[in-house]
Each structure stands twice: as structure tokens, then as C-alpha cells.
Amino acid sequence: GKCADVPQEQKAGWASFVKSLAQMTGDLSSMTAPPWDALSLSISALRLAEAERFRVEDHAVTIHLVILSPVSLTEFPAYWCEHPELFASISEGQTEQERVERVLRWFIGTLKAQYTTRNEKMGSEKKPLNPVLGELFYGTWPDVNGRGETVLVVEQVSHHPPITPQTAYHIENKKAGVSLQGHSGQKTSFTGTAINVKQSGHAILTVQPKNGSAVETYLITLPKLRIEGIIWGSPYIELVEMSAIQSSTGYTVQIDYKGKGYFSGKAHSFKAVLTHNGNGNGNGGNGHPLQTYEGQWTGVATVGGPKGPVFLDTNIAKEEVIVKPIEEQDEWESRRLWEKVAKGIRTGDYDTAGKEKSRIENEQRQRRKDEASSGNGWAHRHFTHVDSDPEYQQLSAMLHDKLTPAHEDAYVYKGEQQQAQAQAE
Ligand code: CLR
Q: How far is the CA of 83 from the centre of ligand 1 (A)?
């Protein structure tokens, strides 16, 4: 396997890194610090433990090589739209059922990018850069074949414990009449061989159907993940348990995720069941299955059983988000903010990467201190925090899903108008 290509001294470093993860288990659950810090703690614990056997510098190199990614988590919401044509085409569905199916097709089509990109680009799953409060990421997908331009706005809206770090995002294709607003954070725990990740937050998709029907909203819940392959030194993600899509039109999709050895015997498998919770909808009413969709979220999915017609081939070409050159970016924009750290990681200059990272972190600490003493907290640029999201509340009540809390907070996109106003003031 992959392990064979790894030099001997790196393998030794990895083994003790895994051991240190396992040893952290007890402490982690009682810790209020974000998971990021827990992970860096394991690394420094390892550094101390290994200091006798390796020179500290050599050792640090080994660890960074294996797990650090030069990309910040604020870039991740772009994975929601690497198939902009699937996103735009949702509003073209002729019926409510056709539209919920298009939402499902787009959603399943996002999973491969969300959960396998780092393996494809960097060889294995990596630890992303931990965003700072106020960090921004902007991007676009061009208007091709009249589908309309898609615009992405991301902001890191919380960072410090006891609040879980949260990333808020808004993606909109005005011409198509489709927009997505959401936020996400993670809670991690180690099992000894795998890392369990529970995602917090949710997304709301808003669709203005092209046939003139009333605006529809869809609640999208986020799956749990397990990071496997850690003991082999090649971490990858497997999705576990379930997530759901709940439409304001009464349609529900429950998506169950399984890895190797379950219902399909294949890794990265899912099975989605479409139901309608109204009673005036033929045999699909009252929660009876209307349709099923199954397959691999990294491969091909079919409708109505494994031999049914193709629902989606996830291997269709993806379109990466377009971002302004760094020189033209605002100082809070992710790639500009992390430029030197990212360059250090990419070129193996971990010394510079580490120094730059500490500089950014110290600056952040100072900012928070200043805010505390002046009494003026950090203000979000693009989003307004609400304690209970009314759209979430309405849709989660329709979901009848005991796992979904009745209330969740949200970060509501301020929109361009309000932003222009704020700037003028
Ligand atoms: C963030 C939200 C995105 C989907 C997504 C994909 C990969 C996840 C990431 C989220 C959160 C952070 C994450 C990452 C994979 C690895 C990383 C869980 C959920 C952890 C913290 C780092 C583990 C380190 C090992 C790889 C050594 O929409």
C-alpha cells in the first residue's frame, strides 16, 4: 500500500503520532478547547516524547509532512458548488418531486469534492489551516451556456471556546434563482484507530422555480464522518450514519451512508429514500417510500435499485472556484492571510510556516484582548447571527427526525444592498 513509499523514519514518527492520538482520548472529551488545539497538542506531546530519539527539528519535519494542509477551512464551502450546472438546474424542475430529485442529485454530487479532494490532490486527508475570526473567502463560477454566474461568500464567524468555531457561507446563482446559506463547525473525538467528526450547523437552499411556482426552501443536514486509515498513515474519510434533505413542499429524503462491508460491500456507499409527509400524494404519502437512489458517492448512483437507470455519475468533470489573484485580495482574505504559512508548508520550509502561524495567532490573541478591554466585540462583515433560524425551525419540524434539534442558530447573509449601505455609512 501507500505506506511502502514512506521513508522508514517517517513511519516511526507516524506510529508514535497515532499512539499519542490514542493517549489523548480521555483528555479530549473533557477539554473545552477546539479540536484544532487538541491536535496540535498531540503533536507537541509527540515532539517531547520523541525528543530523545530524534533531533527535534527532524521530527517536526516528519509530522508536518504527513498531516498539514496549506488550505484553510474557509475554502471548503466552495465544494458545495463544483458542479455549478447541477446547482443552477434545480429551478428548472417541472414538478415539486422533480425539483427535490434535482436537489438530491446536486447534493450527492458535492460529496466527492467535499470528502475526497485532499486525497486526490495531496495523497491523503490532511489537517486544514484553522481559520481566524473574520477570515474571508470569495469566489465565483462563470456564466457558461447561459446558466448564470455563481457567487460564493465565506466568513469565519466564530473562533473561540466555549463556542465551536463556525464557518458561514452564502452561494448564489441569481439568474437561476438558486441560493444556499449555511454554517458549519466540527467536534472531533479519537477512538484509538479513527477520528469521529460530528458536524454542527445546517444549510438552507432557496429555490425560485422557473415555472413560476412559489419559492421553495430545503433544509440540508450534515453527515457525520470518520477519518479512517490513520494507522496506515493514509487517512481518508468515510461518511457514517445519515443526513437528510427536507423540502418546504413536504418531500423528505433520508440518506444513509455505509462503508465497506455493509449493504453494497463497497466503500463510500449511500442509499437515499424519498418520501412525502402529506396524505394527498398517492402511495408516496404518509411516509411511504416514493423512490430510492443508491450507489457510491464517489462513483455511479442509480434510481430504484442497483440495476436501475443512472441517477448520477459523480465522475463528471468538476469546476474549481475562481479566486482573485492574491495581490488583489483584501488582507482578511484567506489565501492572502495564510500566504506565507501555505508557502512554507508547500515548499517544506516548516520553520517559516511555524513562525508565520505563530505571528498570526499572537496577533489574534492581541485583538481579542483589545476588544475585551474596549468593550467592542468583533463585527461580522457579511452575516448577522440569529439565535433561532425560523426556516430551520419550520423545516426541521417537518423532518420528524429525533436527531435534529428543534432550534438552531444561523448566520444570515446580509446581501449586497445592506453591505453597500454599511460601507457608505
Ligand atoms: C469541513 C466542512 C466541509 C466538509 C469537511 C471535509 C473534511 C473535514 C472538514 C469538513 C473538517 C475538518 C476535518 C476535515 C477532514 C480532516 C479534518 C475533519 C467537515 C480534521 C480536523 C483533521 C484530522 C487530521 C488527520 C487527517 C491527521 O463542508
A: 21
